């Protein structure tokens, strides 16, 4: 965790192919095993050096040992990133509803229509699985509309509001949209009711509402900003989940891509985080930003490792990426000549880091989403790798790992505001060679440098 990578004698990993040492370390904790075909022995080492275990420990399953060690070490940190963080409470949900109401007034809209999903979770704590579509139209419409026989189930969802929720039920042979239109929800309006529909709304519901006489508009403006601009409670959760995810990755793996991903997931779960994606890619397999290979590539001494992982805490997402060398590959001394295939990896690592730095500088109130992407793109293009930066520089993040505004060079109409949270994740992907991506999460803070929500950025390929 500090003091740099563990040091192993290079000769230990240069035995015959049959006894090649397979070295796994997670969180300064490691496992050394003679290849799969010969008898196994294991040893644990920490940041300060190698420590051999007594002989009887050698017969244990190295993968299980590695996983247990990974968990133990993450828990032994005391999980400081989880301090001062709490789930979203009822007052916060009420506050969201009030901000939504103000935004609807500002946009001259009478109601917001949302189906169970991320936005419904944000406003009413009901996710898609919690209100599964058993009946195709038995969906919630705020102030809530539900099939008559589902009305009680809707009430039992325990949506987090102090005031009682009004449910507009309909019978199966009625038209639900007309039922809503003629309900007392809208009876005081002296115009055609205007509805704004969420981006996750299914098309047939929008058409049904339109046919029933509602005026329909898509998600935009102040209403979209309610979820984009985070409160301090949301920022606290985002900081906790992103910092914790970096801690778990930084402190390090081995074996195959899939085995590392599984051990990392288990370590995250042990810390109370709930991983929902985990991409571990070695060398040329990282030239596809999101992988796609089967996870069977084995970690070797000079493997360039890319890990991109996301977890949930209290419904909020982390999304971070680190690219680094295994800790048993020692950092070349300054005065040593670096072999050219290593030198290119180091150069690209630095270029992507500089691109990330420039995109972060641009993450200020009143920058456009496009400016943030272009700032990173300029660095990478000037270094001659423009074609190899194949995706946007980042995206909003919150209750959903990828949410608006999206930081791409065409998004010139979206302005950053204080309280918005974004990933910055430039990358360079060299087919048949390797890929590098650095990803951190940041909070826009007026005209200042944005606030880092991932603890600390990577320092080098040996200090991710
Ligand atoms: C929101 O829902 C989760 C379960 O999905 C629950 O644990 C939590 O207590 C709910 N929050 C509130 C404020 O009701
Ligand atoms: C991924 O790695 C495997 C094992 O080394 C290799 O066979 C495969 O070609 C790689 N895939 C890509 C897309 O580079
Ligand atoms: C994974 O892909 C590699 C080629 O890239 C192949 O050699 C290997 O057999 C595959 N493994 C599995 C488990 O499918
Ligand atoms: C951003 O622009 C708005 C509107 O022009 C202005 O009120 C605000 O002060 C600007 N913010 C900063 C940090 O310059």
From TrEMBL:
Q: Give the domain of life.
A: Eukaryota
In this chain the Peptidase M24 domain maps to 246-445
Q: Which residues form the signal peptide?
A: none
A Pfam family reported for this protein in Swiss-Prot or TrEMBL? Peptidase_M24
Keyword Methyltransferase among record annotations:
no
**UniProt xrefs under Gene3D superfamilies:** Creatinase/methionine aminopeptidase superfamily, Creatinase/prolidase N-terminal domain
Q: Which SUPFAM superfamilies match?
A: Creatinase/aminopeptidase, Creatinase/prolidase N-terminal domain
Q: Which residues cross the membrane?
A: 21-45
PANTHER family attached to this UniProt entry: AMINOPEPTIDASE, XAA-PRO AMINOPEPTIDASE P-RELATED
Full protein name:
Peptidase M24 domain-containing protein
- Organism of origin is Penicillium chermesinum
